[in-house]
Amino acid sequence: MRDLELKTESLAERDQKHLWHPLTQHKTSPEMLPVTKAKGCILTDDQGKEYIDAISSWYTAVYGHCNKYITDKVAAQMQNLDQVVFSGFTHEPAIKLSEALVKILPKGQQKLFFNDNGSTATEIGIKMALQYHHNLGNDRKVMLAFEEGFHGDTFGAMSVSGLSVYNGAFEDHFIRVERIPVPTGKNNAEVIEQLRSILADKNIAGFIYEPLIQGAAAMKFHDAEGLNEVLKICRGNDVVLVADEVMTGFGKTGRYFASDYMEEKPDVVCMSKALTAGLLPMGLTSCSMKIYNAFYSDEIAKGLFHGHTYTANPLACAAALAAVELLVSEEMQENIQRISQANLDFVNKLSQHPKVKNARSKGVIMAFELDIQTDRYGSLRNRLFKFFMDRGVFLRPLGNTIYIVPPYVISENELKKVYSVIEDSLSVF
Ligand SMILES: *Cc1c(COP(=O)(O)O)cnc(C)c1O
Q: Where is this site: Participates in the substrate recognition with KAPA and in a stacking interaction with the adenine ring of SAM (predicted)?
């Protein structure tokens, strides 16, 4: 009886009974949109309306939703080995994934530590940096980070995030952090000066940074040469370099990793999001032998005593391995180049428009600011969101920034439609 009763209510109404959504003030938020299907670049809602997923569902489903190559591999894995404790045991999906990843990771990355999501990937990056120095007997307990960085929502990750605007309740419990602005090309000398004075003054253990593009700061780009200089100086001071590639990794910037644009390579790389292609949650933190060796000891306490129950879940590993196989394929690389070129052309066109500021692109990521005053969570973003959704395109503007991170498999026509609704918005807002 009860079940029948429930079925007369819409999914959106039933959602409100028991569910608490992320990053949401439920009192002022509109109803959640039920999605019943995702295939390729298309999301379908419970009314049958279709939307092009122009941000790859938060930068995850870059090979398209429910990609058959990946779902087949996961389904096969599911028949064979679903889960086993990764402490004391190992399995082929994790081993194969490590072999495939080490080939494409920035030079020097040799050891992989599994976790569950992007926040825990950075959390472990921070722990590696702090414990590296602890194990070596160095008194270094402060992290360095960029202003406006975002590294996740767990405590360590929140601490290093400059952007965490609603974290007032937790601030007393944060780890110690010093911040520098991102080098933009124009301010490089000042950034370096600030960096040098912090390094002289504070006991910096590690530097955590989103290489070249700060996603949550509304796709803020910075200068590769300036970043390279920052990394070089940090390395000279034995500061552990922790690259948070959770957003930028796996082809989005046009190369496998954003770190590939800099000569100075990270000591630690944090991965998630596109790692598992939107299919299953997983994070990874890789490191160089220099870091690993500081934990390798006869003393048990020098090990990294961190572990999640679902560490290296075989299904997630199978998804990630299939994803890497797709990423390195000629077809996917061509897709990435095609979208990168289309983005460059679109940026050129947009730049002529009087309402467009700072149009930019790198790889499949394209962003610009609408020349309208607003705040990050002001009403403009909701109106823009609705405008795009009404026209069948899922975009998630931040403040007055409109950006796309389309799946690599987006068709030319779908991409044209995304560009054209963006152009339409310029004459309405
Ligand atoms: C999304 C993101 C995170 C956090 O990942 P979650 O899986 O959401 O915890 C961390 N760093 C960056 C750069 C991200 O974009």
A: 23
Give the fold, CATH level 3, of 11-66+330-427.
Aspartate Aminotransferase, domain 1 (3.90.1150)
pLDDT of residue 1: 47
| Closest CA to ligand 1's atom 6 | 118
The percent of residues above 90 in pLDDT, for the chain, comes to 93
pLDDT of residue 376: 65
Query: Per-residue pLDDT averaged across 184-201, rounded?
Result: 97
* Options 3.40.640.10, 3.30.70.580, 2.60.34.10, 3.40.1080.10; CATH of 69-328: 3.40.640.10
Which one-letter DSSP state was computed for residue 110? Answer: E
Question: Ligand 1 atom 8: the closest Cα is on which residue?
Answer: 118
| Cα–ligand 1 centroid distance for 27 (angstroms) | 25
Q: Which of 124, 151, 212, 310 to mutate to test the pocket of ligand 1 (most atoms within 8 A of CB)?
A: 151
Q: Is the CB of residue 65 below 6 angstroms from any atom belonging to ligand 1?
A: no
| Residue 235 CB neighbour total at 10 angstroms | 16
396 is known to lie in a ligand binding site: yes
Q: What sign does the CA torsion over 329, 56, 225, 202 have?
A: negative
* Ligand 1 center from residue 246 Cα (angstroms): 6
| Ligand 1 close to Cβ of residue 285 (< 6 A) | no
pLDDT recorded at residue 6: 52
Tell me if residue 14 falls in helix, strand or coil.
helix
How do the domains of the chain map onto residue ranges?
11-66+330-427, 69-328
Kindly state the average pLDDT of the residues 32-40: 97
Q: Would you state the structure tokens that stand for residue 278, as one six-digit string? A: 């939107």
Q: How close is the Cα of 387 to the center of ligand 1, in Å?
A: 27
Q: Is 399 annotated as a binding residue?
A: no
Residue 53 annotated as binding?
no
Share of the chain above pLDDT 70, in %: 97
57: annotated binding-site residue?
Answer: no
DSSP for 160-213, written as a single string: H-TT-TT-TTTGGGPPPEEEEPPP-SSSHHHHHHHHHHHHHHS-EEEEEE-SSE
151 CA distance to ligand 1 middle (Å): 6
Q: Do 11-66+330-427 and 69-328 fold alike per CATH?
A: no
Closest listed residue to residue 423, CA positions, set 349, 361, 316, 363: 349
